[in-house]
Amino acid sequence: MKKSIVLFFVAVYFMTGCVSQKKFNTQVSKYDSLKTSSDKVDLMLSDCIEESKKKQSRIGNLEDELSFVKKSSGAMLQQLSDLSVISATQAESIKKSLDNINSKEGYIRNLQTELSRKDSLNMALVLNLKGALKDVNDDDININVEGSAVFISISDKMLFKSGSYDITPRAKDVLGKVADVIKAQPDVQFMVEGHTDNKSITNANIRDNWDLSVMRAASVVRTLQKQYGVDPARMIAAGRSEYVPVVSNDTPEGRSTNRRTRIVILPQLDQFFKLMEPKP
User: Fold this and answer.
1) Which one is predicted more confidently, 205 or 69?
2) What angle separates helix 2-16 from helix 21-83, to the nearest 10 degrees?
3) Least C-beta-crowded within 10 Å: which of 26, 44, 71, 233?
């Protein structure tokens, strides 16, 4: 496809003689950039679809097991009733067991609905975030889904100066775009995590990496609240210090990768807890 479009531009160039080499190269570069972005989104969609299929398969197996038990219990109850070998109390006990099976069947259906809703919400968040941050260098920010949460990882070189927890003007623009997406989903809560490398730091305001990681997370939360109007009740500020590295700290590049701030968009766990509450 790319080759066909390039040949098209070449043909137009030689036929009209009006398109400069610079404009031609610009168009080809724009096409390459758009194709790269499209490939990334296609890959992410493929991963999410595969994960959803696995969940559907697990739920389907549970439904099959419940259906088998339900049929077996019903047949047994009918046989026992025909033979008049069970008491009214025993029959009532079996009936309660069947009712319990029906209740669990409903629970699985509700769980399936919530899982599908959560997956759809996560996908919408990722696509909206990638669209809002499309102009940001991929080396400075990374957006992905892990398990049931959406993660936005921002490098410290974009957010802060070395050894500081004051947010840079460039970073405030990025946080503003993130805030717009988050505010569009008012029911979603999220946590801001500060991470450092393993190089110790001490100055008049910072005692160690614990201090630095917490202060950086608090700076991000404070900016989202005061400058962009994000509800503070939806946010958690947390410091992880040097203890959750993503790569080895043995090289300068590795330490740079580990110095990051993550915004973790959390699943709505209260809905799942309600589903698991015993029914009266």
Assistant:
1) 205
2) 150
3) 233
Q: How many domains does the chain have?
A: 2
Residues 17 and 72 in one domain: yes
pLDDT digit string, tens, across residues 127-141? 888 888 887 776 788
Structure tokens at 102: 């029906």
Q: Is 38 left (phi over 0), alpha (psi -120 to 50) or beta?
A: alpha
Contact predicate 12/19, CB 8 Å: yes
Residue 232 carries which DSSP code?
G
Residues 147 and 259 in one domain: yes
In which order are the strands placed within the sheet that holds 149-155?
141-146, 149-155, 260-265, 190-195, 235-239
Comparing CA positions, the residue from 154, 163, 130 lying closest to residue 44 is: 130
The domain of 7 spans 1-119
**Torsion-angle region of 260 (φ positive above 0: left; ψ -120 to 50: alpha; else: beta):** beta
* Prediction pTM value: 0.57
The CATH number linked to 203 is 3.30.1330.60
Pair (19, 110) in one structural domain:
yes
Q: Which two tokens stand for residue 149?
A: 């949460």
